């Protein structure tokens, strides 16, 4: 086979010529050793046609991206991710966060094929339907087993992954070793929140965090180079990520698996970015074209796609028995993972009984039973700035309850959410010129001037496991306008995040109208499921925490 003339960089010079090269080479997929190439070809074809038909049935949906990522799904759900379809909340599972939520059929179909009980065939067929019991809306939501976070607004999911990548550090025993696998498309590295979060994740060097970049070079309006010509690989390397290229992700399951396995190497010192080249709407009449992004292919084109694959054009929603068999071992393998980890936890409990007790309380989302008694009984009655009252109320709780991870967007001296002898969460080999040296055991995060990412990362922390980590963010109220989309996403998911907004009135007059958030109360009060509290004195500050 001649050497590919495909761009090896992350830039948008990878385009139509590269698509044509990949299409010509799509004869037989590169299969892992235990799988025949013919069987894998059948699996990929079945998946692509299923996506095309699901979008066609109600005349809406986003088929192209999901069709193009068929090989990703096989690599993730069949060969690399540790998960348990019949124990979907297993604590030590890998977390898969699908940032490009509009292509959620990719996730729904893989959940069905992999054996998640709640994702029945009838549920899968309810994609974008008007059924009141449908769990398959046009953007994935956390109500469904196997979906870690609600994504939709671009850039949120990739930012959530930075939060989910913070992990519990247990000595002497690898009692917790989940990986975080994220999937994004070209739009995510353009969104401001995505850029903020990718920069911060690279700085933190979380070696259990992997991003798969679906480099199909297409957006809704056209090709990516319509609006962006940066070299993505160089951008990510500059942000501190390790970059791995996989050239043909139309068929090269083996190559994707090899790249993902790098993310399991405990000796890695950087966060992993896998630049995978795919073709949107592959093997359809509109392969590589923007028209396949956000609209059904059309009945004639779906029929033509079946004919291209050598399938009976009269069969609808057909999944061959060989394809079902390909996935049938996934639930049993998942239960093996659960049993192995349960045994490990038993050994850990014997070796570290005190730490194990704390760990189990954290898994259960328990705060110390006496946490409310840590709130001072005597609070000032004279007018006191909210940030000072908040510090008096919460500093002891933050110090003594390891559940809380607290952080600010570069306003530590102003918002007063630290506590005596707090430890910073940071890469251990980072020695700041000014400020505290940190480690992964710290619980105070310096987000930098990244308000939007701060809110989205906090959502990822909270979603890791219910109340195992209780994130607290803080900045001036006016700057929560930058974070508002992330605050809204957290509220929609009812995630237990606390946002502490200071300097919240026209009383901050000396800063001028730019810092007077007179309109923001209405915005945040209107957000569904957001508890908006504006305490008027120190006692009401204490009451707000008790109510929460």
Count of individual domains: 2
Query: What composes the largest sheet?
Result: 5 strands, parallel
The tally of beta strands, per DSSP, is: 9
State the secondary-structure class: alpha/beta
InterPro entries: THDP-binding, Transketolase-like_Pyr-bd, Transketolase_BS, Transketolase_fam, Transketolase_N
GO molecular function: metal ion binding; transketolase activity
GO biological process, one term: pentose-phosphate shunt
Cofactor: Co(2+); thiamine diphosphate
Explained architecture:
The chain has 548 residues and is α/β, with parallel strands linked by helices. It folds into 2 domains: 16-97 and 149-335, Thiamin diphosphate (ThDP)-binding fold, Pyr/PP domains (Rossmann fold); 371-547, 3-Layer(aba) Sandwich (Rossmann fold), CATH 3.40.50. Helices cover 39% and strands 9% of the residues. The protein contains 20 helices and 9 strands. A 5-stranded parallel β-sheet has the order 1-2-3-5-4, sandwiched between helices. Strands 7-6-8-9 form a 4-stranded parallel β-sheet, sandwiched between helices. Helix 8 (192-204) packs across helix 17 (451-463) and helix 13 packs across helix 14 (353-363). It starts with 15 loop residues before the first helix and ends with a helix. Mean pLDDT is 90; it is low at 1-15 and 168-173.
């Amino acid at each position: 086979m001649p050497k590919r003339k495909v761009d090896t960089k992350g830039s948008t010079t990878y385009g139509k010529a590269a698509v044509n090269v990949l299409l010509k080479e799509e004869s037989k997929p590169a299969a892992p050793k235990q799988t025949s190439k013919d069987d894998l070809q059948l699996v990929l074809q079945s998946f692509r046609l299923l996506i095309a038909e699901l979008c066609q049935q109600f005349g809406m949906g986003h088929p192209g991206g999901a069709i193009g990522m068929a090989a990703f799904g096989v690599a993730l759900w069949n060969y690399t991710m540790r998960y348990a379809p019949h124990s979907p909340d297993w604590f030590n599972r890998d977390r898969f966060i699908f940032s490009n939520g509009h292509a959620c059929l990719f996730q729904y179909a893989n959940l069905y094929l992999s054996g998640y009980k709640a994702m029945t065939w009838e549920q899968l067929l309810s994609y974008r339907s008007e059924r009141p019991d449908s769990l398959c809306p046009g953007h994935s939501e956390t109500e469904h087993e196997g979906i870690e976070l609600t994504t939709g607004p671009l850039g949120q999911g990739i930012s959530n992954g930075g939060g989910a990548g913070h992990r519990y550090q247990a000595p002497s025993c690898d009692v917790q070793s989940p990986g975080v696998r994220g999937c994004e498309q070209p739009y995510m590295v353009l969104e401001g929140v995505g850029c903020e979060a990718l920069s911060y994740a690279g700085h933190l060097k979380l070696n259990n965090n992997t991003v798969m970049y679906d480099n199909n070079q297409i957006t809704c309006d056209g090709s990516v180079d319509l609006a962006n010509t940066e070299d993505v690989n160089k951008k990510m390397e500059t942000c501190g990520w390790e970059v791995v290229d996989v050239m043909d992700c139309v068929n090269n399951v083996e190559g994707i698996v090899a790249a993902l396995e790098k993310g399991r190497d405990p000796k890695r010192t950087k966060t992993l970015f896998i630049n995978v080249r795919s073709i949107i709407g592959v093997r359809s009449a509109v392969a590589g074209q923007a028209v396949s992004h956000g609209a059904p292919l059309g009945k004639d084109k779906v029929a033509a796609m079946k004919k291209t694959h050598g399938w009976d054009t009269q069969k609808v929603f057909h999944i061959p028995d060989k394809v079902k068999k390909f996935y049938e071992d996934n639930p049993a393998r998942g239960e093996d993972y659960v049993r192995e980890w349960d045994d490990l936890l038993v050994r850990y409990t014997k070796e570290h009984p005190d730490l194990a007790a704390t760990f189990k309380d954290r898994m259960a989302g328990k705060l110390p039973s006496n946490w409310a008694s840590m709130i001072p009984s005597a609070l000032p009655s004279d007018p006191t700035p909210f940030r000072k009252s908040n510090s008096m109320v919460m500093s002891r709780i933050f110090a003594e309850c390891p559940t809380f991870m607290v952080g600010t967007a570069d306003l530590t001296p102003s918002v007063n959410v630290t506590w005596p002898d707090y430890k910073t969460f940071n890469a251990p080999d980072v020695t700041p010129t000014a400020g505290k040296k940190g480690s992964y055991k710290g619980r105070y995060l310096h987000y930098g001037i990244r308000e939007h990412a701060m809110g989205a990362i906090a959502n990822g922390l909270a979603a890791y496991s219910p109340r195992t980590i209780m994130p607290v963010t803080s900045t001036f109220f006016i700057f929560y306008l930058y974070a508002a989309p992330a605050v809204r996403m957290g509220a929609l998911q009812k995630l237990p995040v606390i946002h502490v907004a200071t300097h919240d009135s026209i009383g901050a007059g000396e800063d001028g109208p730019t810092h007077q958030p007179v309109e923001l109360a209405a915005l945040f009060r209107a957000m569904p499921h957001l508890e908006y509290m504006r305490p008027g004195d120190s006692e009401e500050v204490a009451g707000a925490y008790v109510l929460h």
